Amino acid sequence: MGIVQSSNLMPGIPSHVAIIMDGNGRWATGKSLTRLKGHEQGAKAVREAVKGCRELGIPFLTLFAFSSENWKRPKEEVNHLMGLFRYFIQKELTELKEAGVKVKFIGNINRLPKDIQKLVDHAKAETAGNKDMVLTVALSYGGQQEIVHAAKALAEKVKAGTLAPEEIDEALFADHLDTADIPDPDLVIRTSGEKRLSNFLLWQCAYSELVFLDVLWPDFKRLHLEQAIEEYLKRCRRYGAVSV
């Protein structure tokens, strides 16, 4: 891809890990705390995931931080999550920059508060030249919405006469997605024991290996990342073909 120059990638280890960070609310409920406290603890687990992937030599990490459906949650919870995003971006940016991490964001960023949009732009600009790892954060993101947006973009080109319908194939469609400049996930991890994608990277996960962990996201540690990768290494990725 020309974005990441990683020389310590172990044979067979996934080059792109995507994580659905689930279980903040249940973690808090189990400890008789507010859901807001669960989100605060969950933010700390993000550091574990980023650090773990960096140390393992995984060049691409994508985190599902806030879905397009999450806007339906109570206003207090949404506002608290926005506050956590502000805090996390401001607090972690310097360390991410120094660690060689390039920060990207996907989703309907225009729906976020203006100050967070500015923080997003600042984080992208400050880390644009980094090549050791790409951290993609999905904010206000929905896989179905992303696919519809790509289809509309292609339809506009056909309407304008700059693209013929027969020229549209899987590769061209992928080029119109938010993730056009990063590879599809090799491994998707979901915490909390739930077993669904929840509208996350639906196109990109067509042949991803899925690993579901019972641990709630606030309790996620390097050990759990390694467990998921160990499970991934046992899989035989055939992409619809017959294994040799």
TrEMBL record:
Residue numbers binding Mg(2+): D22, E209
EC number(s) from the headed UniProt entry: 2.5.1.-
PANTHER family: DEHYDRODOLICHYL DIPHOSPHATE SYNTHASE 2, DEHYDRODOLICHYL DIPHOSPHATE SYNTHASE FAMILY MEMBER
Alphabetic keyword roster: Magnesium, Metal-binding, Transferase
Gene transcribed to yield this protein: uppS
Family: Belongs to the UPP synthase family.
Annotated cofactor note: Binds 2 magnesium ions per subunit.
Catalytic residues (UniProt): D22, N70 (proton acceptor)
UniProt key word Metal-binding: yes
Family annotation (InterPro entries): UPP_synth-like (IPR001441), UPP_synth-like_CS (IPR018520), UPP_synth-like_sf (IPR036424)
MF terms (GO), sorted A to Z: transferase activity
Protein name per the record: Isoprenyl transferase
Keyword Metal-binding part of the UniProt annotation: yes
Binding site for substrate: 23-27, 35, 39, 67-69, 71, 73, 190, 196-198
Lineage: Bacteria, Pseudomonadati, Pseudomonadota, Alphaproteobacteria, Sneathiellales
Subunit: Homodimer.
Natural source organism: Sneathiella chinensis
NCBIfam families assigned: PRK14830.1, uppS
Function: Catalyzes the condensation of isopentenyl diphosphate (IPP) with allylic pyrophosphates generating different type of terpenoids.
Cofactor(s) this protein requires: Mg(2+)
